[in-house]
Design a protein that fits this description.
By secondary structure, this protein is an alpha/beta fold. The protein contains 24 helices and 18 strands. Strand 11 and strand 12 form a beta hairpin. The structure holds zinc ion. Zinc ion binds next to loops.
Length: 560
């Protein structure tokens, strides 16, 4: 059996980022915490004392089972699955990076075709054994429950089947290391006794199920402020929503104000749905989308022969909205002549089709919206003052998305559900980092922009995977403060010192140096292979190409 060597951990350290000025630590897209082992030991001890050893063991095992699952997702993304054992040992490497123990591989057999798995590892200076001995003294049974949870969660998620690890030796029993063995749960003769620590009365085997239940619960909790179209719980949103709800039962004209994309039509539709007119039509017109010469015939209708081309009589939007609600979006764009007619309709409650002598009674509730400052338009003479007063009886300002950041998570959840259905795709959620990037964005295009960004995210994210930053913002989210990462000796250094230097003008520097393209490529490939410690797959990843592409290029150079 060949010895197992860890591949270089550059890729792994690269995932860990310390953004101290933002108060954030990242492992890939997952938010991490650097806490004192002593504090976690204290929590562990109190848990054991308060709920008893059996229950504490279950909780602790499951807690770290969840960590292991997250890291497996990271491993599958980061390392090429062509070299399965290299990809797999990222788990033990992460477990080491996270400070739990030194993990020494003893035996590892993975068969992806049959999902066969056997793994045996030694843990040196396992933190949990030390913590247990410190709290309770030496014991006669294994106690590294969290670490076993991690190993099992990682391997189960990596292999796609329940792989159960157990400790056959533990440092808490007076040995100088712990020894763990993992294999498919059914292959353990005492599987039935072990299984309860992982799935048992409550969670782990049902982890995903549980998450869905929780999401369903959260949905019912936020129900009061939800209509199919409007979602939010921020103070600004609730204020606008309450105003609309109060106006709904009356016939007052409502003027919706707010930046483009804030969802004015959705508010208008909701107002209609909440009003006694909900059974009658809701008709929406975007005044900016119609050419000026057509707008009057669109709104008020036209009688046959009124002008060349008017072959038949046609009802306008007002008549079509009779008994219901007419929504005039971008009302500031109406030409002055149409403004005069609109004012008359509002005052008299009757319309006249173009080219018609008759007047027709209409019963229409008007909701207008604008993203321009109508008062300024009045001052500039492009909007009638009397119409402005008539429309501005009940103004409702819808806040921009950047002023209702706390509404982003529920909006994201609802939009993801919608787009998953629309694109027939199932995702496991959105990463911590992606959610943070969504909250940090300034959203000049408001909810509509968020919708576009999320739809792209749902399309680009891998099936059953997470939406990550790169799926939302092309080129990644802008970094806020300076970030640090671990160098090979384990010290923090400013991230991207190298890349910043490179960004100065790498092509210019190469040209100035008189190096030709081939020699430059050769040097670059050589450096990547060196940095990857001779591991070609890792070198290819550094260069952003596939291993066969790298091999081809290296061969080409050798041939010269
Ligand atoms: Zn142990």
């Amino acid at each position: 059996m060949k010895a197992i060597h860890y591949p270089q951990s550059d890729d792994l350290r690269g995932l860990l980022r310390f953004a101290a000025e933002d108060g954030l630590i990242w492992l890939g897209e997952h938010r991490m915490l650097l806490i004192h082992a002593g504090a976690l030991s204290e929590l562990r001890k109190e848990l054991i004392c308060s709920v008893g050893q059996e229950q504490a063991r279950r909780i602790l095992t499951r807690m770290r089972f969840a960590s292991g699952m997250r890291d497996a997702e990271l491993a599958r993304r980061t390392r090429s699955l062509d070299e399965l054992s290299d990809a797999f040992v990222m788990g033990p490497q992460l477990h080491m990076l996270e400070g739990c123990a030194r993990v020494e591989p003893v035996r590892l057999e993975i068969d992806p075709d049959t999902s066969r798995f056997y793994g045996e590892f030694l843990w040196h200076h396992a933190w949990e054994a030390e913590a247990h001995v410190q709290a309770f003294g030496a014991v006669d049974h294994p106690v590294c429950w969290m670490m076993i949870g991690y190993a099992s969660g990682y391997t189960s998620a990596f292999m796609g089947r329940f792989i159960l690890f157990r400790e056959t030796e533990c440092a808490a029993m007076g040995l100088d290391h712990c020894r763990i063995v993992g294999k498919p749960v059914d292959e353990w003769p005492d599987a039935d006794a072990l299984r309860p620590y992982f799935e048992a009365d409550h969670i782990v085997g049902r982890l995903l199920e549980l998450r869905e239940e929780m999401e369903a619960m959260r949905r019912t909790i936020t129900q009061p402020r939800r209509t199919p179209d409007l979602i939010g719980n921020s103070a600004g949103f609730r204020h606008a929503y309450d105003l609309v709800a109060r106006a709904a039962s009356t016939t007052v004209s409502v003027l919706l104000l707010g930046e483009t994309g804030v969802g004015k039509e959705r508010f208008a539709r909701t107002l209609h749905e909440m009003s006694p007119r909900k059974a009658a039509p809701f008709v929406a017109v975007n005044c900016a989308a119609l050419p000026g010469e057509l707008i009057e015939s669109e709104l008020f209708g036209v009688e046959r022969g009124a002008f060349t081309g008017a072959q038949a009589s046609r009802a306008g939007k007002f008549e079509r909205a009779d008994g219901g609600t007419l929504f005039l979006d971008e009302v500031g764009e109406l030409p002055l002549a149409a403004q005069a007619k609109l004012l008359r309709v509002l005052q008299e409650g009757e319309i006249e089709r173009l080219g018609d002598e008759r007047t027709r009674k209409v019963n229409v509730r008007l909701v207008a919206a604008t993203n321009v400052d109508l008062q300024k338009a009045v001052a500039a003479g492009t909007f009638r003052r009397d119409l402005y007063y008539r429309l501005n009886v009940f103004p409702v300002t819808i806040p921009p998305l950047r002023e209702r950041i706390c509404d982003i998570p529920p909006l994201v959840e609802a939009m993801m559900q919608r787009f998953e259905t629309l694109h027939d795709k199932r995702l496991s959620g959105i990463s911590d980092k992606a959610m943070l990037a969504l909250k940090a964005h300034s959203w000049p295009g408001n909810v509509r922009e968020l919708e576009n960004v999320l739809e792209r995210g749902v399309i680009l994210a891998p099936s059953n995977g997470l939406i990550e930053v790169e799926h939302l913002f092309l080129g990644g989210a802008p970094q806020a403060g300076p970030q640090h990462q671990l160098n090979a000796t384990g010290s923090l250094e400013t991230r991207d010192g190298r890349r910043q230097a490179a960004a100065i003008d790498l092509p210019g520097a190469v040209l100035d140096s008189g190096t030709d393209l081939e020699s430059f490529e050769q040097a670059l490939l050589k450096r990547a292979v060196e940095r990857a410690g001779g591991n070609l797959a890792a070198a290819a990843r550094l260069l952003g190409i596939t291993r066969p592409q790298l091999t081809y290029r290296l061969k080409k150079q050798e041939g010269q």
